[in-house]
């Protein structure tokens, strides 16, 4: 649209209008905005999707990626999240392989580069939105709208709402989905370039490729499939030049010429719609077949509006959520990693002042839609139609209209819709500039918006570098969000600050009295601080609220064991195993209970179950060795110790336990080698030196025994057994010296 571009000539200098320089500027700005996150940690959902996801490791067959969800669970499982993004997981796996492990820098760098590439691609997308698809006789596009496309791409590149997708590694799903979404759209545009944009003609190859790219986008992030809907809208309203106002008028007046409308008689259009519809239906059918079961089960705290009894209450709150998403696009200053759990209280009556927000949203949307569909200016119709298309269509999967989603507001869901917002904002700035007398003031405002957005991106990227900053940044945005307080508390607990962690866990439970995970973690800390009565009350309440909460049942069993309530503890452990059959830690704790009760065979069986489920469970192996050693079964203890070291060859605690057994079996040389190897791995363990000294003492190497007794006592002067043995050795050495004299 030449007029719109001309209106922006005082904002965008002509020196950067060449496509190469425009894309270079956009790419540079996008990298500057989020470069601070390059050396950040894995934060929030990254732990589950990456660190704890076995699909990233080489031992997991590549074929499993096509049967697992985003978090590594089988899609057929009733507990699966049903988020099917195998291509995104494949890129994580490549990151893991190329970087040699879980080194977050390589993951973050890929995300930053992806956003840079998408921002550069946006220059071409916005060029189509603002300039249309008119070609010269030589096949070159006319009306590239360089100023409009550059400004819109800069607004997109520097939008702070993108921080979650770029700085959070799991946001790669949105980035990859957006990348293939845009490629699909540009591919669909290419279908008309190949034919010189002749009326009713197209390249079937590019249409089919567009459908394929849409399928690839969906395999990266579910909303990617919506590009087929955008392509259809683009084809009907822009390529087909269907004037909705004209159609409505003819329908109302029962005009017989309705059947002669070019768009409706265009066989090429109908063929393309058939390809898009059949391709989309086929992809969705395959997605449904792979999913195996129904949609995922979300809880009320994830999306409280969807659980409201009244349809009116649900509708009002859904629309309020839409207005909040619009506000985040307009004013992305209050950003939060999580908007659930009371962050946004429900609107329960029409008298709530927040209803004004959704009324304002629909007032603006209806006005834009009327202009997009009814304007006599075809250029204006194209810009507003595609701007609204990009804004609304990719957002539909997050709208709760077709199925319940597991969040209230998600900034990541705005990555693609923000492109539509940037197009509409650019159009509005152009219209404002056309009628404004002080054009330099408009230019200053635009540059100010860009500068503030870049600054906000940099600040927000810094907050996403580690969990402590991320979680604390949310306290001022969502003080009523129990999950925010829970995550701050968890972060403090991981750092050893239990007193502060307790305060935040208590606040999380106060805000959400049914928050079982907060109760479980708080109960664990109280257990460690020996506040057993309150810990038992909290954990009992947690399993009462959620009877299948296996971790809480296990922790309740540990507390009951500490309170000497052995029967109740055994029952709690058994209940935990009933709800989670493959639970090695619970078998380990059950074994400890049986050992306390001198039920040695049961203890050994429980620990053996733990090692079968988790062969690297060092504590279970150790307890088996020690119990067999203490009960005089040295041969069996030795066999178990050797089996354990084959599986975990570098575990110094296993070396120590087996060395003790071998020493008692008078296999001094092998025992000595294991003790020395354990000490090399953990040189400051007083018990390792003390027991090696006992071995030397028993073996008759008294000088070496004296040396290691002294090292052990330097490391732990309070070790009474070592002191006693050292005293015996000194008397023995004194007696030897007297004999020698």
UniProtKB/TrEMBL annotation:
Pfam families: TMTC_DUF1736 (PF08409), TPR_16 (PF13432), TPR_8 (PF13181). TPR repeats lie at residues 482-515, 516-549, 550-583, 584-617, 686-719. The chain crosses the membrane at residues 20-38, 112-132, 173-191, 203-219, 225-248, 269-288, 355-374, 386-407, 413-432, 441-459. It is found in: Endoplasmic reticulum; Membrane. Its main location: endoplasmic reticulum. It comes from the Eukaryota. Pathway: Protein modification; protein glycosylation. One of its GO terms (molecular function) is dolichyl-phosphate-mannose-protein mannosyltransferase activity. Keywords: Endoplasmic reticulum, Glycoprotein, Membrane, Repeat, TPR repeat, Transferase, Transmembrane, Transmembrane helix. Its EC number is 2.4.1.109. Coiled coil: none annotated. Transfers mannosyl residues to the hydroxyl group of serine or threonine residues. The 4 members of the TMTC family are O-mannosyl-transferases dedicated primarily to the cadherin superfamily, each member seems to have a distinct role in decorating the cadherin domains with O-linked mannose glycans at specific regions. Also acts as O-mannosyl-transferase on other proteins such as PDIA3. Belongs to the TMTC family. This is Protein O-mannosyl-transferase TMTC4. The lineage of its organism: Eukaryota, Metazoa, Chordata, Craniata, Vertebrata.
């Amino acid at each position: 649209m030449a007029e719109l571009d001309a209106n922006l000539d005082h904002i965008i200098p002509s020196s950067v209008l060449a496509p190469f320089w425009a894309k270079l500027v956009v790419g540079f700005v996008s990298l500057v905005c989020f470069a601070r996150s390059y050396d950040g940690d894995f934060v929030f959902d990254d732990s589950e999707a990456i660190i704890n996801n076995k699909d990233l490791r080489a031992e997991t067959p590549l074929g499993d990626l096509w049967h697992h969800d985003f978090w590594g669970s089988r899609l057929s499982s009733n507990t699966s999240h049903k988020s099917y993004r195998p291509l995104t997981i494949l890129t994580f796996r490549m990151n893991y392989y190329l970087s040699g492990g879980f080194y977050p820098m390589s993951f973050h760098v890929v995300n930053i580069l992806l956003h840079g590439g998408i921002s550069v691609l946006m220059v071409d997308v916005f060029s189509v939105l603002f300039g249309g698809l008119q070609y010269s006789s030589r096949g070159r596009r006319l009306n590239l709208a360089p100023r409009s496309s550059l400004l819109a791409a800069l607004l997109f590149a520097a939008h702070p709402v993108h921080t979650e997708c770029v700085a959070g590694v799991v946001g790669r799903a949105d980035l990859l989905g957006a990348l293939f979404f845009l490629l699909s759209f540009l591919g669909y545009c290419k279908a008309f370039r190949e034919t010189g944009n002749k009326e009713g003609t197209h390249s079937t190859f590019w249409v089919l490729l567009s459908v394929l790219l849409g399928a690839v986008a969906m395999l990266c992030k579910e909303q990617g499939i919506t590009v087929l809907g955008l392509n259809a809208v683009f084809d009907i309203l822009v390529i087909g030049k269907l004037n909705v106002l004209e159609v409505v008028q003819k329908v109302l007046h029962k005009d017989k010429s309705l059947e002669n409308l070019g768009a409706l008689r265009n066989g090429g259009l109908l063929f393309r719609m058939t390809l898009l519809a059949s391709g989309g239906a086929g992809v969705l059918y395959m997605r449904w077949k792979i999913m195996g079961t129904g949609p995922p089960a979300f809880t009320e705290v994830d999306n409280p509006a969807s659980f409201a009894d009244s349809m009116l209450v649900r509708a009002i709150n859904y629309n309020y959520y839409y207005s909040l998403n619009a506000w985040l696009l307009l004013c992305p200053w209050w950003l939060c990693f999580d908007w659930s759990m009371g962050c946004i209280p429900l609107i329960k009556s029409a008298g709530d002042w927040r209803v004004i927000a959704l009324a304002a949203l629909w007032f603006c949307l209806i006005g834009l839609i009327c202009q997009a569909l009814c304007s006599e200016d075809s250029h204006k119709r194209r810009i507003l139609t595609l701007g609204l298309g990009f804004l609304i269509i990719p957002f539909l999967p997050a709208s709760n209209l077709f199925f319940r989603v597991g969040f209230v507001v998600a900034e990541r869901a705005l990555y693609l819709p923000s492109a539509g917002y940037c197009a509409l904002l650019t159009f509005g700035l152009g219209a404002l500039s056309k009628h404004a007398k002080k054009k330099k003031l408009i230019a200053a405002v635009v540059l100010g918006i860009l500068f503030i957005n870049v600054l906000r991106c940099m600040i927000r990227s810094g907050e996403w570098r580690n969990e402590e900053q991320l979680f604390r940044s949310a306290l001022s945005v969502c003080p009523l969000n129990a999950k925010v307080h829970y995550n701050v508390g968890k972060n403090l607990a991981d750092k050893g600050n239990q007193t502060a962690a307790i305060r935040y866990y208590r606040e999380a439970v106060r805000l959400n009295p049914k928050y079982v995970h907060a109760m479980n973690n708080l109960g664990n800390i109280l257990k460690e601080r020996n506040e057993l009565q309150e810990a038992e009350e909290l954990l009992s309440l947690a399993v009462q609220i959620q009877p299948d909460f296996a971790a809480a049942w296990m922790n309740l069993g540990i507390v009951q064991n500490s309170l000497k309530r052995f029967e109740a503890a055994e029952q709690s452990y058994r209940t935990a195993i009933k709800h989670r059959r493959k639970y090695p830690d619970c078998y380990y704790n059950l074994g400890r209970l049986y050992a306390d009760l001198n039920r040695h065979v049961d203890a050994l069986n429980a620990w053996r179950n733990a090692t079968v489920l988790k062969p690297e469970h060092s504590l279970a192996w150790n307890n088996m060795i020690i119990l067999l050693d203490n009960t005089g079964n040295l041969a069996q203890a030795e066999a178990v110790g050797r089996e354990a070291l084959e599986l975990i060859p570098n575990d110094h605690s296993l070396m120590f336990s087996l060395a003790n057994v071998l020493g008692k079996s008078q296999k001094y040389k092998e025992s000595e080698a294991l003790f020395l190897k354990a000490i090399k791995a953990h040189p400051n363990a007083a018990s390792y030196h003390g027991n090696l000294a006992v071995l030397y003492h028993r073996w008759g190497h008294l000088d070496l025994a004296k040396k290691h007794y002294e090292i052990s006592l330097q490391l732990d002067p309070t070790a009474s057994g070592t002191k006693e043995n050292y005293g015996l050795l000194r008397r023995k050495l004194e007696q030897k010296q007297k004999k020698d004299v």
